[in-house]
Design goal:
This protein has helices spanning 2-8, 17-25, 30-34, 38-43, 47-68, 128-135, 138-145, 149-170, 249-252, and strands at residues 10-16, 77-79, 85-87, 95-101, 104-110, 115-121, 183-185, 191-193, 201-208, 212-219, 223-224, 230-231. The chain has one domain (2-252): 4'-phosphopantetheinyl transferase domain (Ribosomal Protein L22, Chain A). α2 (17-25) packs across α5 (47-68). The protein is globular, with a radius of gyration of 18 Å. The longest helix has 22 residues, at 47-68. With 263 residues, it is an alpha+beta fold.
């Protein structure tokens, strides 16, 4: 992960909450690590939701700590009004994004501009007819309507996760109408933001563990060098940037955590 951060200024890592459950809950420093999230963890009404909440926040802190090369316990995680997670006291030095679905947890970290991530089960069946007006621009809806049903459903889910990742990167989340944001695919199948002629944004979608669709959005700001200077970001082919496996537990996990079996 650190190599990825040094090379491009950003990384996306994934794990499952089950793999982190015991290491997180048995950590005697859990209350300190959760910080301002401790009351929310304790007050969560559903046991499963409570555990998932705690583990996801622990994973965020360890991923951010690995990127910054600092102890996870030193990080203070807070939230903007729309729910976007931020690291207090670090300004724009490192931006983070979190998503989880079923047992999957995904964290995006970036020292090179805003980042957003979103995940959905790849087999999720969602109604195109019911949601097309909420998710699609008129042009997107027209193109999707012309596809065979199975391909249309898959493309619609991919479009949904891309828009979710993009609006998270903007800090808007669900407050921004998805139908006001347009995407198009080039001949290679790479997704791009309609009207982004300067190529300020890069997008990628990955199939993880053969059953989760994960999309990421990055604004291509300057990338910090190891000497602290800034250089232009490396060229990125939208849709081609690989989603790296998280490094071993010594990098992104507490002692005893296992590296994820896949995304």
């Amino acid at each position: 992960m650190q190599e990825r951060i040094e090379e491009t200024g950003r990384a996306v890592v994934h794990t499952t909450w089950g793999q982190w459950l015991a290491p997180a809950l048995l950590d005697p420093g859990l209350r300190t690590l959760l910080g301002r999230d401790w009351p929310r963890y304790r007050q969560h009404p559903a046991p499963a939701g409570r555990l998932s909440f705690a583990v996801s926040r622990v994973v965020v802190k360890h991923a951010a700590a690995a990127a910054l090369q600092v102890p996870a316990g030193r990080l203070d995680l807070a939230y903007l009004p729309g729910g976007r997670p931020v690291l207090r006291g670090l300004g724009a030095d490192l931006q983070v994004s979190l998503t989880h679905t079923d047992e999957l947890i995904v964290v995006g970290v970036s020292r090179a501009g805003p980042v957003g991530v979103d995940a959905e089960p790849a087999g999720r069946r969602i109604s195109f007819e019911l949601l097309r007006g909420h998710v699609c621009t008129p042009g997107e809806a027209e193109l999707l309507a012309a596809l065979p049903e199975e391909e249309r459903t898959d493309r619609f889910l991919r479009l949904w996760t891309l828009k979710e990742a993009y609006t998270k990167a903007l800090g808007h989340g669900m407050r921004r109408r998805f139908s006001a944001v347009g995407f198009a695919w080039d001949a290679s199948g790479a997704a791009g933001l309609t009207g982004d002629t300067a190529g300020e944004w890069a997008f990628a979608t990955h199939l993880v563990q053969e059953r989760f669709l994960v999309s990421e959005a990055h604004r291509l700001d300057a990338v910090p060098t190891s000497e602290g200077r800034l250089r232009a970001p490396l060229p990125v082919e939208p849709g081609r940037t690989p989603l790296r496996e998280p490094p071993g537990p010594r990098v992104v996990g507490p002692p005893g955590a296992r590296g994820p079996g896949r995304r």
